[in-house]
Amino acid sequence: IGRLESEVGVKNVAPFLVFFAESRPKLMLQNLSHVLDLLNHDPYSMRSAIVSAISHILVYLGKPQEEQDNTTLDVTKSRASLLDLLTERVYDVSSFTRASVLKAWIRLTTTQSIPKDRIVSVATLAMDRLQDKTVLVRKQAMQLLTLLLENNPYMKSLAPQPYQNKLAELY
């Protein structure tokens, strides 16, 4: 991508990255290493766009193998490393990027692209962000927690009767 020092360059490249990842996630995944270096640079809008692009890639990787293009990539390793990257980015310096990361988690929750073993850690992450100093991040964290509860994959297997009986015993 080269140098993106001007604000105009960032404003043009950031939406392109998101659109590119949304329309061609496999191709974006193959070239993601060229873009990830920009996560350590100043323009928060570029970091937010990269986070959004990663969420589109994760939605693609979360699809069953039949729906993916004949991929030869190591899906499990790629998916785990991208999920770890999203987890790290929730502590970004910019509140706009932190909010963007939470929006990415919201997108993954609504498309059911979060692995079951990560749901508890994502909920913990969202609860931690409820203590953020900016309203924008707290709002996104609340939305994420709400969606995690609404889309709980264990909801069908949880019968309320044993818990109600236990509650009755306690009181």
How are the secondary structure elements laid out?
Blueprint: H1 7-23, H2 25-30, H3 32-36, H4 44-61, H5 75-89, H6 95-110, H7 119-129, H8 135-150, H9 160-170
Helix pairs in contact: 1-4, 4-5, 4-6, 6-8, 7-8
Describe the structure.
This protein has 171 residues and is mainly α. The chain has nine helices and no strands. The N and C termini lie far apart (64 Å). The model has no long low-confidence stretch (mean pLDDT 87).
- Tell me the series of helices and strands, N- to C-terminal: HHHHHHHHH
Low-confidence stretches: none
Considering DSSP H and I runs of 4 or more, what fraction of the residues is helical? 55-70%
β-strand percent reads under 5%
Mean pLDDT equals: 87
Could you tell me the radius of gyration in angstroms? 18 Å
Helix tally equals: 9
Per DSSP E runs of 2 or more residues, the count of β-strands stands at 0
Estimate the global geometry from the Cα principal axes: globular
Largest beta-sheet details: none
Keywords:
mainly alpha, single chain, about 170 residues, globular
